[in-house]
């Protein structure tokens, strides 16, 4: 097998160019609506943007994947089906889907369109993955962040589908696509609207020297004067269980699996994915460059360089290998 | 179609004796039609219940209940996969007691194994639209239980599609709403333990571990690797509307309270003997949590819309367009 493919995020045309220029093998992006799981204000691509992105990337031998990875609304399938049709028409290299009905539509309507399974489908075992392979011809599965590296290795031995794993960026402690926490607090969910803990429902309230962050009707964290205040992503909040306030679900931390490259290679992983379509072009450029250098060194058998840039990029300066190591559980 | 009451699987880690006694009383007294059994949250708990499973199935079927077995929500490890394969085996494996008539799939792997045979689709499968429902029906689904976060408009569309396809559509109408599943055990984490050495601390909390905000406002409930709502989802006042949409099955999710009383109350509404709103008021406070119905009303799931029930947030206000989200 060749080296890892490096799959990089883009929320804007500028970020796409930054990712391409910094050494991405493929860039993934979404249309500017609820059909993708990063449906944030000011983010994402019009059809014209995608056409230009494909031209820019293909001229540099970089692929473009379009994420259409929310779950179409009952009675309103149109936007999702048009997104698939337009992605095919714009000659993107793959679409990343999660919904069974939409996969069925794409496989039937566009038999030549390469299908990837989104992490939002949360296919965590060989039988689930084979279903998507056999029913829809899915060629690659983005694995949910619930598996250890040994579990990924065993899984890869049982399936004839490429696997892609997240190596850097935001980290869901919950199985992706199977979480209604945001919906419970705000009415808006990753699966339905493509948003998690949306900014429209976030407030910051000074409380003396402290600062509270709230989401909908709920306080997600209270920061002391000596603590940096973070964004109130629900599962990264501080809550009280057994009379103890703590980061019950996950600390404000970022995934960085760079130390696991040999393990992921041995486990048969084909592609490595960087999270962060909501990030600016400077961040994207720096992270992609750091990973490009690391993968090139790894492929050549050289020591993997430690990137000072990357350390500066992680949330709150803290990083984790997440579920890839059993101790995380 | 006669409306039908379903008792979902016990989600919490009860002592096996309590679990057995609970189902004995359900068999004898609860006016439910279908009882779904199985440890679907944590593989580590399953051996405890396996010892009593055959007897519980026998007791329920002897009482005239239809018994289904539910598959686990998250199947990642080899052992979890092996157990799921045993449960869904086509040749009547020993893992399936005689008397259980259907398997309810809660993970895509189970759905894969059940293809081509009649089966049920559980609420942990992402079923959001009629195209997915048609695909599931084509593979043998005879009944689907919808995800808790679906709003009324989606439920209506899916119920109609279900009628056209001959698939029964079910909605959870009582009990804490399942919100998330993880590989990480938050019960263990809250006790400073690791999942591998969890000491089964989830067994201390028969209705789950309360999680509050730093202001002391009740918010969520941890049940091992699962996270549930704090509020008790209750659609008693919406039962008539649900039935009018074509929803034929109504799910109660068990808690460590008088579930016979809950079942009787919902049965009375379905039979037209009581008002749904009155039943909601009666059941308010049965578990130590306010009633919520926000998901159905296309707003925050933690909210309660309409009626006189207490509010989770204490912030009673009409729905604004913003609350309803961008797709309404």
UniProtKB/TrEMBL annotation, chain A:
<comment type="similarity">
    <text>Belongs to the peptidase U32 family. UbiU subfamily.</text>
</comment>
<dbReference type="GO" id="GO:0046872">
    <property type="term" value="F:metal ion binding"/>
</dbReference>
<protein>
    <recommendedName>
        <fullName>Ubiquinone biosynthesis protein UbiU</fullName>
    </recommendedName>
</protein>
<feature type="binding site">
    <location>
        <position position="235"/>
    </location>
    <ligand>
        <name>[4Fe-4S] cluster</name>
    </ligand>
</feature>
<feature type="binding site">
    <location>
        <position position="172"/>
    </location>
    <ligand>
        <name>[4Fe-4S] cluster</name>
    </ligand>
</feature>
<keyword id="KW-0479">Metal-binding</keyword>
<dbReference type="InterPro" id="IPR043692">
    <property type="entry name" value="UbiU"/>
</dbReference>
<comment type="function">
    <text>Required for O(2)-independent ubiquinone (coenzyme Q) biosynthesis. Together with UbiV, is essential for the C6-hydroxylation reaction in the oxygen-independent ubiquinone biosynthesis pathway.</text>
</comment>
<feature type="binding site">
    <location>
        <position position="179"/>
    </location>
    <ligand>
        <name>[4Fe-4S] cluster</name>
    </ligand>
</feature>
<dbReference type="Pfam" id="PF01136">
    <property type="entry name" value="Peptidase_U32"/>
</dbReference>
<feature type="binding site">
    <location>
        <position position="196"/>
    </location>
    <ligand>
        <name>[4Fe-4S] cluster</name>
    </ligand>
</feature>
<comment type="pathway">
    <text>Cofactor biosynthesis; ubiquinone biosynthesis.</text>
</comment>
<keyword id="KW-0004">4Fe-4S</keyword>
<keyword id="KW-0408">Iron</keyword>
<keyword id="KW-0831">Ubiquinone biosynthesis</keyword>
<keyword id="KW-0411">Iron-sulfur</keyword>
<dbReference type="InterPro" id="IPR051454">
    <property type="entry name" value="RNA/ubiquinone_mod_enzymes"/>
</dbReference>
<dbReference type="InterPro" id="IPR001539">
    <property type="entry name" value="Peptidase_U32"/>
</dbReference>
<dbReference type="GO" id="GO:0051539">
    <property type="term" value="F:4 iron, 4 sulfur cluster binding"/>
</dbReference>
<comment type="subunit">
    <text>Forms a heterodimer with UbiV.</text>
</comment>
<dbReference type="GO" id="GO:0006744">
    <property type="term" value="P:ubiquinone biosynthetic process"/>
</dbReference>
From TrEMBL, chain B:
<keyword id="KW-0831">Ubiquinone biosynthesis</keyword>
<comment type="function">
    <text>Required for O(2)-independent ubiquinone (coenzyme Q) biosynthesis. Together with UbiU, is essential for the C6-hydroxylation reaction in the oxygen-independent ubiquinone biosynthesis pathway.</text>
</comment>
<keyword id="KW-0004">4Fe-4S</keyword>
<comment type="subunit">
    <text>Forms a heterodimer with UbiU.</text>
</comment>
<keyword id="KW-0408">Iron</keyword>
<dbReference type="GO" id="GO:0051539">
    <property type="term" value="F:4 iron, 4 sulfur cluster binding"/>
</dbReference>
<feature type="compositionally biased region" description="Basic and acidic residues">
    <location>
        <begin position="313"/>
        <end position="328"/>
    </location>
</feature>
<dbReference type="Pfam" id="PF01136">
    <property type="entry name" value="Peptidase_U32"/>
</dbReference>
<feature type="region of interest" description="Disordered">
    <location>
        <begin position="307"/>
        <end position="328"/>
    </location>
</feature>
<feature type="binding site">
    <location>
        <position position="202"/>
    </location>
    <ligand>
        <name>[4Fe-4S] cluster</name>
    </ligand>
</feature>
<keyword id="KW-0479">Metal-binding</keyword>
<feature type="binding site">
    <location>
        <position position="198"/>
    </location>
    <ligand>
        <name>[4Fe-4S] cluster</name>
    </ligand>
</feature>
<keyword id="KW-0411">Iron-sulfur</keyword>
<feature type="binding site">
    <location>
        <position position="42"/>
    </location>
    <ligand>
        <name>[4Fe-4S] cluster</name>
    </ligand>
</feature>
<feature type="binding site">
    <location>
        <position position="185"/>
    </location>
    <ligand>
        <name>[4Fe-4S] cluster</name>
    </ligand>
</feature>
<dbReference type="InterPro" id="IPR001539">
    <property type="entry name" value="Peptidase_U32"/>
</dbReference>
<comment type="similarity">
    <text>Belongs to the peptidase U32 family. UbiV subfamily.</text>
</comment>
<dbReference type="InterPro" id="IPR051454">
    <property type="entry name" value="RNA/ubiquinone_mod_enzymes"/>
</dbReference>
<dbReference type="InterPro" id="IPR043693">
    <property type="entry name" value="UbiV"/>
</dbReference>
<dbReference type="GO" id="GO:0006744">
    <property type="term" value="P:ubiquinone biosynthetic process"/>
</dbReference>
<dbReference type="GO" id="GO:0046872">
    <property type="term" value="F:metal ion binding"/>
</dbReference>
<protein>
    <recommendedName>
        <fullName>Ubiquinone biosynthesis protein UbiV</fullName>
    </recommendedName>
</protein>
């Amino acid at each position: 097998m060749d080296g890892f493919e490096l799959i990089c995020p883009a929320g804007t045309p500028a970020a796409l160019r930054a990712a391409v220029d910094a050494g991405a093998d493929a860039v993934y992006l979404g249309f500017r609506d609820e059909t993708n799981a990063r449906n944030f204000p000011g983010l994402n691509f019009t059809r014209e943007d995608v056409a230009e992105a494909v031209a820019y990337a293909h001229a540099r031998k970089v692929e473009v994947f379009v994420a259409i990875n929310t779950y179409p609304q009952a009675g309103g399938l149109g936007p999702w089906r048009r997104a698939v049709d337009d992605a095919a028409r714009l000659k993107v290299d793959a679409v990343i889907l999660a919904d069974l009905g939409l996969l069925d539509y794409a496989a039937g309507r566009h038999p030549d369109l390469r299908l990837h399974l989104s992490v939002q489908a949360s296919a965590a075992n060989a039988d689930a993955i084979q279903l998507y392979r056999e029913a829809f011809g899915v060629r690659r599965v983005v694995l949910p962040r619930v598996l250890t590296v040994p579990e990924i290795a065993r899984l890869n031995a049982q399936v004839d589908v490429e696997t892609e794993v997240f190596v850097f960026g935001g980290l869901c402690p919950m199985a992706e696509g199977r979480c209604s926490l945001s919906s419970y607090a705000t009415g808006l969910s990753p699966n339905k609207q493509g948003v998690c803990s949306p900014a429209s429902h976030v407030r910051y309230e000074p409380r003396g020297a402290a600062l509270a962050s709230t989401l909908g009707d709920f306080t997600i964290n209270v920061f002391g004067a000596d603590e940096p205040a973070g964004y109130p992503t629900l599962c990264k909040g501080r809550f009280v269980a057994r009379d103890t306030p703590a980061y019950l679900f996950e600390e404000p931390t970022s995934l960085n699996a760079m130390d696991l490259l040999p393990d992921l290679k041995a486990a048969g992983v084909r592609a490595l994915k960087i999270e962060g379509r909501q990030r600016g072009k400077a961040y994207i450029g720096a992270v992609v460059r750091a990973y490009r250098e690391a993968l090139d060194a790894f492929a050549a058998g050289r020591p993997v360089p430690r990137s000072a840039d990357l350390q500066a990029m992680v949330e709150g300066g803290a990083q984790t290998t997440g579920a890839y190591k059993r101790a995380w559980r | 179609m006669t409306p039908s009451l379903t008792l979902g699987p016990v989600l919490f880690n009860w002592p096996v004796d309590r679990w057995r006694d609970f189902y004995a009383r359900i068999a004898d007294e609860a006016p439910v039609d279908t009882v779904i059994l199985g440890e679907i949250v944590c593989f580590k708990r399953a051996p405890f219940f396996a010892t009593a499973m055959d007897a519980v199935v026998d007791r329920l079927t002897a009482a005239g209940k239809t018994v289904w077995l539910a598959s686990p929500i998250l199947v990642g490890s080899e052992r979890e996969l092996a157990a799921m394969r045993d449960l869904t085996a086509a040749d009547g494996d020993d893992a399936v007691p005689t008397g259980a008539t259907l398997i309810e799939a809660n993970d895509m792997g189970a759905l894969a194994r059940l293809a081509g045979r009649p089966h049920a689709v559980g609420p942990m499968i992402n079923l959001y639209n009629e195209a997915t429902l048609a695909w599931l029906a084509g593979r043998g689904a005879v009944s689907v239980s919808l995800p808790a976060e679906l709003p009324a408009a989606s439920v209506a569309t899916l119920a109609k599609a279900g009628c056209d396809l001959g698939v029964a559509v079910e909605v959870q109408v009582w009990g804490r709403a399942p919100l998330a599943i993880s590989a990480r055990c938050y019960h263990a984490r809250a006790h400073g333990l690791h999942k591998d050495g969890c000491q089964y601390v989830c067994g201390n909390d028969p209705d789950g571990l309360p999680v509050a905000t730093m202001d002391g406002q009740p918010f969520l409930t941890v049940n091992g690797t699962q996270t549930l709502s704090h509020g008790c989802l209750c659609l008693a006042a919406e039962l008539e509307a649900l039935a009018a949409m074509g929803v034929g099955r109504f799910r109660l999710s068990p808690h460590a309270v008088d579930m016979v009383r809950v079942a009787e109350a919902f049965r009375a509404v379905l039979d037209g003997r009581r008002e749904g709103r009155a039943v909601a008021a009666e059941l308010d406070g049965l578990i130590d949590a306010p009633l919520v119905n926000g998901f159905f009303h296309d707003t925050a799931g933690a909210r309660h819309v309409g009626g006189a029930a207490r509010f989770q947030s204490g912030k009673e206000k009409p729905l604004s367009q913003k609350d309803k989200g961008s797709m309404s």
